[in-house]
Design brief:
The complex is a heterodimer of chains A (about 240) and B (about 575).
Chain A: E1 17-28, E2 31-42, E3 46-50, H1 57-64, E4 72-77, E5 80-81, H2 87-97, E6 98-101, H3 113-123, H4 128-136, H5 157-169, E7 175-179, H6 187-203, E8 207-211, H7 215-219, E9 223-228, E10 231-235
Helix pairs in contact in A: 3-4, 3-5, 5-6
Chain B: H1 2-13, H2 15-53, E1 77-86, E2 89-98, E3 118-120, H3 122-131, E4 159-164, H4 170-173, E5 176-177, E6 183-184, E7 187-189, H5 198-243, H6 247-280, H7 299-326, H8 343-358, H9 364-396, H10 400-411, H11 413-436, H12 448-486, H13 488-496, H14 501-532, H15 541-564, H16 566-574
Parallel strand pairs in B: 2-4
Antiparallel strand pairs in B: 1-2, 1-7, 3-4, 5-6
Helix pairs in contact in B: 1-6, 2-5, 2-6, 2-7, 2-12, 5-6, 5-7, 5-9, 5-11, 5-12, 6-7, 8-9, 9-10, 9-11, 9-14, 10-11, 10-14, 11-12, 11-14, 11-15, 12-15, 13-16, 14-15
Classes of the chains: A alpha/beta (about 240), B alpha+beta (about 575).
Bound molecules: adenosine-5'-triphosphate and magnesium ion.
Chain lengths: ~240, ~575
């Protein structure tokens, strides 16, 4: 569970496909948010999604994560079709196979940090004591020693995001989705958090799909794609790194 | 003025959910205002009845000196009032002999009746003509004869006859059954203006107690409604503070907004009351329904309600805003809440302990004030108990739902209390009334006056409890909805992360039902304890039924209120992209 690690030495071409979106389309009224997107995510891969505001990045992420049903196209997770599942099933999938980090506000304000992290485990049926013990294990590697009992309101923005990362990873998900996870942080803190996120993901063998506006953040990732008007235009320059 | 315009914009620009919040406040304030007008008017109505029946309890002349020299200097008439049953209704017969022809007649009559003249109330005239015969010496009167005016009647259906006699008529002078079944003789009187009858005073006292039992929960409910607007806004207001609005501007804006909504709600409430008054006037108390005018409080009280309600809401809004105003980060940064101070419990216990002492042998006004005080103290101690329950629940929590509920109770005991306070305080009313409910039925009592009072106590109980429950359940529903709106971002993100809706729902249920059980039980006990100062302390079977039904209705109401807000929870959590607004 150690955080620091040479994650970018991974060979990004290796690993099997964990999650795949095929010909995804989504429209809101007359707005076309996704116009036929093909996107695969490999095991242990960190994928950055970039693009101008309103181009459909969040929509893509929500479709891949089973939050939203695409109008057309398919989503497969480890060979299982996700987009045709009912809400209950998708909900269970999100709880067990996916982790989420949002810009802010995902922590329950009334729960201490450690219980915020333990909550997904408890939802999965782990007894409370064990869940909290397991949750505490994530604090030191993420530089959160001593923050276990604090409320989200008593944490700095960066600390809160690190708690959110611990919460996303505690169930050992196959894929972690992050929508502008550093959007509410200053650059230095943002990079610190991103660094931790990517390395923690690698440590745990999960895949990462991160939406970001920050070129440098994208550069931490193995692969960068750019979305424009609901289409993936190019594997952007960062992918060549 | 600028900030008022700005706040108006804020209100309109709050979007669908913002308007929903304002709409809920409006509805809450309207319902409370309507019931407030009702509670106030009830007192006027009984005062009116007391005034209209006072002439049957006129002041005796200076000294009654036997039959030898009945003509006292200041006596204007000889009066005998007696009662008899006509079917299941009560007939009041007032026998009068004028001693002074120029004496002011009682209300409802143009002049004192001449010997042999019989004046009937409209309802009695109807009964007699329906009967086709006489009741004692009361015969049907020819069409177009003088009728007793409404000013002399307790209620429109009252059976009253005024019979004229000569002063020495033995029919007048012989003792007959009075109000409470005892024989009473005729009285030499010096006029018709007097204090209300004892029965009227009893009704006035009961009305006052009922008012307290209704108004206190209403105040709490109104306060909750005011907080609702503020709660909906505090995020936005914190943002305004961050942008640099001064505390004064922020307070002014929010309070203006809350008060505009409350004013509209109060006006709507008065209108609703006007619409409901005809139905309310059919409630039978004291043997009959009401005159339309009885339930019309007059312009001044209505104006007072329409002005006072927004003012109270404004004050409550200011109190709710303190957090935002103190620091720009107030709401954005939620910190470990400071514990509830135990002073609350001390005050509560002191007041409850003082109740039997303070109310022993004092006027009904003091009792009403003390009752209100105890009632308010239940509200004072509520959040403290909720916080305590929260800590216990948290410690014992095994499931995520319980943990969420426990933490939430500890985190914001005040708002958790607001959800159940209405119903819990109705528990107080039920406990109080449950112990006071007489075990005997009206049929078992000889005295028709007492029989009627018992019947009326039961009717009054039902009215007060119904109103209490309406308020309580409305407030539970409104606070449940508003707490979802307040926490919609968190709920939405929890859902995105795969938390089943049932877990959220179970947590919501636990966070209302656990405090409801404890505080509902506590306030029933408190209500029963305060009622013990007036009765022996053993509830009657009827009282237990009242209690049982109340408990069942309270739980059912709160569960239903929570269930009703479930679609809202669903809609809030299926919004694919949670946006902070
Ligand atoms: N719930 C919705 N209702 C209507 N239109 C929506 C909805 N969600 C997204 N859209 C529209 O779909 C398009 C794509 O939105 P999306 O949120 O995916 O953009 P984005 O790339 O994430 O932008 P940003 O970088 O600003 O977050 C936009 O035009 C947006 O207005
Ligand atoms: Mg987005």
């Amino acid at each position: 569970m150690r955080a620091a690690g040479p994650w970018n030495t991974h060979d990004k071409t290796q690993g099997s496909v964990v999650l795949e979106g095929r010909a995804l389309e989504k429209r809101f009224g007359s707005t076309v948010a996704l116009a036929g997107v093909e996107q695969a995510v490999r095991q242990g891969e960190a994928l950055a999604v970039m693009g101008p505001s309103g181009s459909g990045k969040s929509t893509l992420l929500h479709c891949l994560a089973g939050i939203m049903k695409p109008d057309a196209g398919e989503v497969h997770l480890l060979g299982r079709r996700v987009d045709t599942m009912g809400e209950r099933e998708r909900s269970a999938l999100r709880r067990t196979r996916f982790g989420f980090v949002f810009q802010f506000g995902q922590l329950l304000p009334e729960l201490p940090a450690e219980e915020n992290v333990a909550l997904p485990l408890m939802l999965g049926g782990v007894p409370r004591g064990q869940a909290v013990r397991q949750a505490r294990g994530w604090f030191a590697p993420l530089g959160l020693t001593g923050m276990e009992g604090r409320r989200p309101g008593e944490l700095s923005g960066g600390q809160a995001q690190r708690v959110a990362i611990a919460r996303a990873l505690v169930t050992r998900p196959a894929v972690v989705f992050a929508d502008e996870p550093t959007g509410a942080l200053d650059q230095t803190t943002g990079h610190e958090v991103m660094n931790l996120l990517v390395s923690a993901i690698k440590e745990n063998g999960a895949a990462l799909v991160v939406v970001t506006h920050d070129r440098q953040v994208a550069d931490w990732c193995d692969r960068v794609v750019e979305v424009r008007d609901g289409r993936i235009v190019t594997p952007a320059a960062g992918a060549a790194r | 003025m600028n900030s008022i315009r700005l706040s108006w914009r804020l209100l309109r620009g709050g979007g669908r959910k913002g308007l929903l919040g304002a709409g809920l406040t409006l509805a809450a304030v309207a319902v409370s205002s309507m019931l407030l007008v009702f509670a106030v008017t009830v007192n006027f109505a009984f005062d009116g009845r007391a005034d209209r029946s006072a002439w049957r309890n006129p002041p005796p002349a200076a000294k009654v000196t036997g039959k030898k020299s009945p003509h006292k200097k200041d006596a204007v008439a000889v009066q005998a009032v007696h009662y008899q049953a006509v079917g299941d209704r009560m007939l009041t017969v007032v026998r009068l002999a004028a001693l002074d022809e120029r004496a002011t007649p009682p209300p409802g009559l143009d002049r004192l009746p001449a010997p042999g003249q019989v004046v009937l109330s409209p309802a009695l005239a109807e009964v007699l003509s329906g009967l086709g015969g006489a009741i004692g010496d009361l015969r049907p009167q020819p069409e177009g004869s003088v009728r007793l005016g409404d000013e002399a009647l307790i209620h429109p259906g009252e059976l009253v006859a005024v019979v004229g006699h000569t002063p020495d008529d033995p029919e007048l002078l012989k003792p007959r059954k009075g109000a409470h079944g005892k024989d009473v003789p005729a009285t030499w009187i010096k006029g018709f203006a007097n204090e209300p009858t004892n029965d009227a005073i009893a009704y006035q006292a009961l009305a006052l107690i009922a008012t307290v039992l209704i108004v206190v929960p209403l105040l709490v409910f109104g306060g909750a409604a005011a907080r609702l607007t503020v709660a909906r806004r505090d995020q936005r207001l914190a943002a305004l503070r961050l942008v640099g609005a001064t505390p004064g501007q922020v307070v002014l804006m929010t309070v203006a907004e809350a008060m505009v909504v409350a004013f509209a709600g109060a006006v709507l409430g008065v209108v609703l009351y006007g619409a409901a008054a005809p139905a309310l006037s059919r409630i039978e108390i004291g043997g009959g329904p009401w005159f339309a005018g009885d339930l019309w409080p007059g312009p001044l009280p209505l104006l007072a309600v329409v002005l006072a309600v927004p003012l109270l809401v404004g004050v409550s809004a200011v109190a709710g805003l303190r957090r935002v105003v103190v620091s720009p980060l107030g709401v954005a940064k939620r910190e470990t809440p400071p514990g509830m101070r135990a002073v609350r419990v001390v005050v509560f216990l002191a007041v409850v302990a003082a109740f039997p002492v303070r109310t022993a042998g004092v006027g009904v006004g003091v009792v009403a004030v003390m009752l209100g005080l105890v009632f308010l103290c239940v509200n004072l101690v509520g959040p403290w108990v909720v916080a305590l329950i929260g800590r216990v629940t948290t410690r014992m929590a095994r499931t995520p739902a319980r943990l969420l509920a426990g933490r939430r109770l500890t985190d914001d005991p005040r708002s958790a209390w607001r959800t159940v306070s209405g119903v819990a305080m109705t528990g107080f009313v039920a406990g109080f009334i449950g112990l006071l409910t007489p075990g005997i039925t009206s049929g078992e009592v000889e005295d028709p006056g007492v029989a009627m009072l018992i019947q009326d106590l039961k009717t009054g109980t039902i009215v007060v409890l119904t109103v209490s429950f309406l308020v309580a359940i409305a407030s539970a529903g409104i606070t449940a909805a508003s707490s979802i709106l307040d926490r919609r971002q968190t709920y939405a993100l929890l859902r995105l992360a795969g938390t089943p809706l049932e877990v959220l729902d179970r947590a919501r249920r636990a966070e209302t039902l656990i405090p409801l059980t404890v505080m509902g039980g506590g306030s029933i006990a408190t209500g029963a304890f305060t009622a013990m100062s007036f009765t022996g302390g053993v509830p009657s079977a009827d009282g237990l039924i009242v209690l049982g039904v109340s408990v069942a209705a309270g739980f059912a109401g709160v569960v239903a209120a929570g269930a009703l807000s479930r679609p809202l929870l669903r809609s809030v959590t299926t919004e694919p992209v949670p946006r902070p607004d």
